[in-house]
Design brief:
Blueprint (H helix, E strand, L loop, with lengths): L1 E4 L2 E4 L4 H5 L8 H7 L10 H14 L7 E4 L3 E4 L10 H15 L7 E2 L3 H10 L3 E2 L5 H5 L11 H9 L5 H5 L3 H8 L1 H10 L16 E11 L2 H22 L1 E12 L4 E12 L2 H13 L11 E13 L9 H20 L5 E5 L9 E5 L23 E13 L6 E6 L2 E14 L3 H4 L6 E8 L4 E7 L10 E7 L2
Parallel strand pairs: 5-6
Antiparallel strand pairs: 1-2, 3-4, 7-10, 8-9, 8-10, 11-12, 13-14, 13-18, 14-15, 15-16, 16-17, 17-18
Helix pairs in contact: 9-10, 12-13
């Protein structure tokens, strides 16, 4: 594999046969072909390699939800509390080896008490399972390159006679830090298992996980729904014990050939209703443009609930509105599942006094924003109309001077005589969004002789040397 470095094609990776023929990383392609004329060289694609590694990490999600990338060709899995599900650590390693072999990958594994110890033993040791209490004794035999440090530091350590981790471990930590920096001492402690660190998983761990693993892959899609139903019921019991409900439910279907298919189900509010979730699952399956293909069969199914929120049990028999609200919420969830979260919208309030920006359209599955709708004053007409014109429509108006309400106005060729008026309500522009040139508006709520109610505003004032003010109709009251 070659890529352009400093205007020259150089080898960035090669297989074991090429290494046996004397090729190494950094060698120019011209020099390599001078030695091996029939050399096969392909252009490297690091982004494609990373995407493939992320796909493999997604497949390893069947073993544990804590999977992190390690360099360009490795994975770190935190299997704490997970190994017993696969017959112990030996069974997990064997299952992972068979899975990687099916998709054509060579696997080298190591299990240790800390991620750095496992990484060093897999990359620079023989690999395998390090027995608790014997980890440091085994890792001390590794070369200093097992710390994954810069080449200059390795050369400096070798010149000082420090070639193995045992040589470094016998030196005082303060001496190593003074000569090579504190980072070397930290890497040594972590690699020998003296200090632990947490890995950063590629996907945030969900709040609730339930899963099923099968001894033999199955391809019966009819049986798949029964498996999903059992997982949903089990997750609902876990959430009920916590007093919570899920907002997002992610189903992962792991095929025996390494492919992973994920389906997302969202709800507009916390839910643990197993029957409703099964209906949403069916809607999701029916709406798939690419049907769920079992291939050679599924050997694992996982249900993760990444977002959980408090959910109190309601007694619907005492409140008929609760039943109606649940029916509406179920309908919205079904629409979102079938058409997508960006195609089913609802209005939400925004913290602003600007009438046009007072509401925005958000996904019906999104959590409600912090801003709440303003409460109307008791026994008072609404302050804002339900229907707004964007942009506001210009009208011709006659009003009292200097800032009185309109007496008569013409809109769409019709004359409206004002019988009642309220105002003005002065609304200043939001200068941090509109700038300082946006004029202020004086709003009036008016009612004509026929009982129709309008929301008008005036821009400008009756002042000497300036033009007449302009009037606009911004909305209609119901």
């Amino acid at each position: 594999m070659v890529e352009t470095q400093q205007n020259t094609l150089r080898i960035v990776d090669c297989d074991w046969r090429a290494v046996g023929l004397g090729l190494t990383r950094g060698l120019t392609l011209a020099d390599a072909r001078a030695r091996i004329p029939d050399l096969v060289a392909l252009e490297a694609d690091p982004q494609a390699d990373r995407r493939f590694l992320e796909d493999v990490a997604g497949f390893c999600d069947r073993f544990t939800p804590l999977v992190a990338l390690d360099a360009c060709d490795g994975l770190l899995l935190d299997i704490t509390g997970c190994a017993h599900l696969f017959g112990g650590e030996e069974g997990l390693v064997a299952l992972a080896g068979r899975a990687m072999d099916r998709i054509g990958l060579a696997l080298r594994t190591a299990i240790a008490g800390t991620p750095d110890a496992a990484r060093a033993y897999a990359r620079f040791g023989r690999g395998g399972i390090l027995a608790p209490g014997r980890e440091e004794a085994t890792l001390r035999e590794l070369p200093v390159t097992g710390l994954d440090i810069e080449a200059e530091t390795v050369i400096a350590l070798s010149r000082a006679g420090l070639k193995t981790l045992a040589d470094l471990a016998e030196r005082p930590s303060e001496t190593l830090s003074a000569r090579f920096g504190e980072a070397l001492a930290v890497r040594l402690r972590r690699t020998l298992g003296r200090e632990d660190r947490r890995i950063t998983p590629l996907r945030p761990p969900p709040d609730c996980v339930v899963e099923r693993h099968f001894a033999e892959p199955f391809a019966d899609t009819a049986s798949l729904e029964a498996v999903v139903a059992r997982l949903i019921g089990e997750a609902a019991r876990v959430l009920e014990a916590r007093g919570e409900g899920g907002r997002v439910f992610e189903l992962g279907f792991f095929r025996s050939d390494g492919a992973v298919r994920r389906l997302m189900i969202e709800t507009g509010r916390p839910s643990r209703d197993a029957k409703a979730l099964i209906r949403l699952y069916r809607e999701r399956i029916e709406a798939l443009a690419d049907p769920l293909d079992p291939g050679f069969g599924f050997d694992a199914v996982k249900l993760a609930v990444p977002i959980c929120e408090p959910l109190n049990t309601q007694q619907h028999s005492l409140d008929g509105r609760a039943v109606e609200a649940d029916a509406i919420a179920d309908l919205v969830d079904r629409l979102v599942t079938r058409f997508g979260r960006d195609r089913v919208l609802r209005f939400a309030a925004q913290d602003t006094h600007h009438p046009v920006r007072a509401a925005k359209a958000i996904s019906a599955a999104a959590p409600p924003p912090e801003a709440a709708w303003p409460e109307p004053e008791p026994e008072q007409p609404p302050a804002r109309p339900l229907q707004l014109f964007e942009p506001p429509q210009p009208v011709e108006a006659i009003a009292e001077v200097p800032d009185g309400p309109p007496i008569r106005f013409r809109w769409r060729r019709l004359i409206h005589d004002v019988a009642r008026a309220e105002g003005p309500e002065r609304i200043a522009p939001e200068w941090w969004r509109d700038g300082f040139d946006e004029p202020m508006r004086d709003y009036y709520r008016v009612e004509d002789a026929a009982g129709r109610r309008f929301w008008l505003f005036r821009i400008g004032f009756h002042e000497a040397g300036s033009g007449p003010p302009r009037w606009f109709l911004h909305g209609l009251f119901a």
